[in-house]
Amino acid sequence: MQEIYMACDHAAFEGKEALKKYLSNNFEVIDLGTDSPERCDYPDYAAKLAKAVQDEPKLGILLCGSGIGISMAANRYSGIRAALCRTPNEAELSRQHNDANVLCLGARINSDDELAAIADAWFSARFEEGRHTGRVAKFNDLGEKA
After folding, report:
1. Which of 74, 75, 95, 114 is the most exposed place for a label (fewest CB within 10 A)?
2. Helices (H), 1-146
3. Which among 64, 85, 104, 132 is annotated as catalytic?
């Protein structure tokens, strides 16, 4: 069973738990926190997941209330291609054209069913390579090393 990382802040705790339960049918989810709806800071969890992806490459999912802050924080790390996706189409394109390795979601923006549909589309898509390979290579080494 494929292992994936998952992390969130307090605003997305319930969404993360629902999505984790849904995904556990097909993936071994490595939950990097948070473990409660008590206030915490999304950059801490974005960093934790980004460093895990850098150290042992696996795909990851990050959630916060909007998905915006956590995606901005994750993209500060080299080798992280975190895509904020609101629709299954965006999720599919983020993998096909950008080889996204981290999916970012907004638990206050999308319903649990929508989060599941976005994740399904993301995991089903594959990087198309070709004309996209050079573009991805141009930004792949940018950012902070863990």
Report:
1. 114
2. 13-23, 42-55, 68-74, 88-98, 112-124, 131-140
3. 64
d(CA 126, CA 97): 9
Rg (CA), the chain: 14
The strand pairing partners of 106, in sequence order, are 64
User: What pTM, to 2 d.p., does this model score?
Assistant: 0.93
Residue 8 catalytic? no
Q: Does domain 2-140 have CATH number 3.40.1400.10?
A: yes
Instruction: Report angle CA 73, 14, 57 to the nearest 5 degrees.
Output: 45
**Among 10, 40, 97, 132, which one carries the catalytic annotation?**
97
Q: Are strands 102-106 and 59-64 parallel, antiparallel or unpaired?
A: parallel
Taking only the tens place, the pLDDT of each residue in 59-86 is 999 999 999 999 999 999 988 999 999 9
Helix (H, G, I), strand (E, B) or coil at 85: coil
- The yes-or-no answer on residue 97 being catalytic is yes
